[in-house]
């Protein structure tokens, strides 16, 4: 099975959100970026980007 890269902007926000959540235990500043990525994903997926 091959893993594909996201093809749209909301997909990138989702992947970056999970990456920030995972790394927030080691780099605390990433925990402050994660809510913004979640909001960006919600808005961009709603408008279809």
Which helices and strands appear, and what pairs or packs with what?
Blueprint: H1 9-23, H2 30-47
Give structural notes.
With 49 residues, this protein is mainly α. The chain contains two helices and no strands. It has helices at residues 9-23, 30-47. α1 (9-23) packs antiparallel against α2 (30-47). The chain is flat, with a radius of gyration of 12 Å. The mean pLDDT is 90.
H-E string: HH
Q: What integer value in Å does the Rg equal? A: 12 Å
Structural class: mainly alpha
Low-confidence regions: none
Q: What's the story with the biggest beta sheet?
A: none
Number of helical segments?
2
Percent helix = 55-70%
Summarize, please.
The protein has helices at 9-23, 30-47.
Q: Which descriptors apply to this entry?
A:
mainly alpha, single chain, 49 residues
